[in-house]
């Protein structure tokens, strides 16, 4: 299964992508996690990426595209992957199309998760991320078993600098200007599945599984 998770920051893409990756036994490919990893390592790419991330701006397309192409060429991605946070611009989507068709592959569904701005602000304000493995939770809506400690690996939970109120507003603006054109892009390709991201984490997961199953039946005729 090859899925793209789309939606504004805080929509729940990462949360759902973690669950979907487990369900379909395929990698969760999060460009945000990959860039945070590069920042932590202090690599040259990480140093450049950080300048953009701290402002809530997008990292230049060539850097992002090269990194994703390299990742999806790894053997563990052969049977599918859940893309989370990529593509975020039309240029990224076009580059992905080109590299997929070169490999005779295609995206199955683009899941567009829709959440209101007021809810986004609440979700991002309470989001906590694991310093070691990138796992996320929410202090109120989806708390970790032990306060401040990652359920997944026992690492330390912290609040991302770009989840501050001011940077969130910048990221929302960037999303509306640069990423929403992708809704029409994927609609025209017949791949867009829009769902509401309001409701509990499990309700949203079930909604996604429903549209994936439904479209599977109608396109494969099984
Ligand atoms: P994204 O990857 O789209 O930025 P996340 O998956 O990191 O979003 O979710 C943002 C925050 O909201 C996290 O703290 C997460 O625990 C929380 N969250 C995710 N889904 C829901 C939901 N359905 N209801 C309430 N909080 C949620
Ligand atoms: P969120 O889940 O809250 O939407 P991400 O973790 O996906 O945020 O991304 C964090 C930051 O990493 C973005 O604000 C941006 O600076 C950078 N980034 C991640 N993915 C991309 C991408 N596809 N194109 C450009 N920049 C990206
Ligand atoms: Zn962890």
Please provide a written account of the structure.
- With 222 residues, the chain is α/β, with parallel strands linked by helices.
- It has one domain: P-loop containing nucleotide triphosphate hydrolases (Rossmann fold, 3-Layer(aba) Sandwich).
- The strands form 2 sheets. Strands 2-3-1-4-8 form a 5-stranded parallel beta sheet, sandwiched between helices. A 3-stranded antiparallel beta sheet has the order 6-5-7.
- α2 packs across α3 and α4 packs parallel to α5.
- The longest helix has 20 residues.
- It starts with a strand and ends with a helix.
- The relative contact order is 0.18.
- The mean pLDDT is 94.
- Bound molecules: adenosine-5'-diphosphate (2 copies) and zinc ion.
- One adenosine-5'-diphosphate (ADP) binds next to α1, β6 and α9.
Task: Provide a compact summary of the structure.
The chain is an alpha/beta fold. It has helices at 13-23, 31-41, 44-55, 61-72, 90-102, 117-125, 165-179, 181-188, 201-220, and strands at residues 2-6, 28-30, 81-84, 109-114, 127-130, 136-138, 157-158, 192-196.
């Amino acid at each position: 299964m090859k899925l793209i998770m789309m939606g504004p920051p805080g929509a729940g893409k990462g949360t759902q992508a973690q669950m979907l990756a487990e369900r379909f036994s395929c990698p969760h490919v999060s460009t945000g996690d990959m860039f945070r990893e590069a920042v932590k390592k202090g690599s040259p790419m990480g140093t450049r990426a950080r300048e953009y991330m701290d402002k809530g701006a997008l990292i230049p397309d060539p850097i992002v595209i090269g990194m994703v192409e390299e990742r999806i060429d790894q053997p563990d991605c052969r049977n599918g992957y859940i893309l989370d946070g990529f593509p975020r611009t039309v240029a990224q989507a076009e580059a992905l199309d080109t590299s997929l068709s070169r490999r005779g592959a295609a995206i199955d569904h683009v899941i567009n998760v829709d959440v209101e701005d007021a809810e986004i602000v609440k979700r991002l304000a309470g989001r906590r991320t694991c310093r070691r493995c990138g796992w996320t939770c929410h202090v109120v809506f989806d708390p970790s078993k032990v306060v401040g400690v990652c359920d997944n690996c026992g690492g330390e939970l912290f609040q991302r600098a770009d989840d501050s109120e001011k940077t969130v507003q910048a990221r929302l603006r960037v999303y509306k200007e640069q990423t929403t054109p992708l809704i029409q892009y994927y609609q025209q390709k017949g791949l867009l599945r829009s769902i509401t991201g309001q409701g509990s984490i499990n309700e949203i997961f079930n909604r996604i599984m429903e549209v994936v199953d439904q479209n599977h039946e109608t396109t494969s005729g099984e």
